[in-house]
Amino acid sequence: MTARTRADLESLPGYGPGRSIPGAVKLASNEASAGPLPSVIAAIRDAAGGLNRYPDNGAAGLVDRLAARLDVPPSHLAVGAGSVALCQQLVQATCGPTDEVLFAWRSFEAYPIITQVVGARQRTVPLRPDHTHDLAGMLDAITPATPLMLVMKTSNPPDQST
Question: What is the pLDDT of residues 12-67, one digit of tens each?
Fold first, then answer.
């Protein structure tokens, strides 16, 4: 038997991490200049004894603590393995093949990929000349087929090479 995937997924671009320079900190990769905090190392050490147990993929303890700290119901929070995983879950939960995901372009490189993986269409609005979102243009681009619009709070400067 041969594994079969959707033909349209062949056109997905491969992920290309930013260039690494020895001794440099890759701010675009959210790397910290120092190592983990001692408290984080201790928490990892303490958790190592339970590695034989299936993880709580809902992160109930974290969600409960965040909900208490932020004074919101736990059902209003989502946690995941980074922004790409959370965005992908959001697109999967709200979009199908007849829907479109609206976002500024250029912006987060994962947006086109996660949109295509779900089978939805991309609807993009160019950034303004100062590299900020054209929010009025994005609002005007919403159609009945747009259940989701992704707007980044912050963004790295767009990659001008592609």
Answer: 777 666 777 887 777 766 667 778 899 999 999 999 999 899 988 889 999 999 99
Residues 120, 160: Cα–Cα separation, whole Å: 26
Q: What angle is formed at CA 34 by the lines to CA 32 and CA 35, rounded to 5 degrees?
A: 95
Q: Which of 26, 6, 7, 24 is nearest to 16 (CA)?
A: 26
Contacts of residue 92, defined as CB under 8 A and 6 or more positions apart, other chains included, come to: 118
Q: Which residues partner with 105 through β-bridges? A: 126
Interatomic CA distance for residues 158 and 162, integer angstroms: 10
Closest CA to 114 of 36, 3, 13, 4: 13
> Residue 136: which pLDDT band, with cuts at 50, 70 and 90?
very high
158, with CB counted inside 10 A (0-12, 13-18, 19+), is middle
The structure tokens listed for 134 are 């054209």
Q: Which residues of 63-89 are buried (b: 16+ CB within 10 A; e: fewer)?
A: beeeeeeeeeeeeeeeeeeeebeebbe
Residues in CB range of 11: below 8 A, 6 or more apart: 116
> How many Å apart are CA 118 and CA 25, to the nearest integer?
33
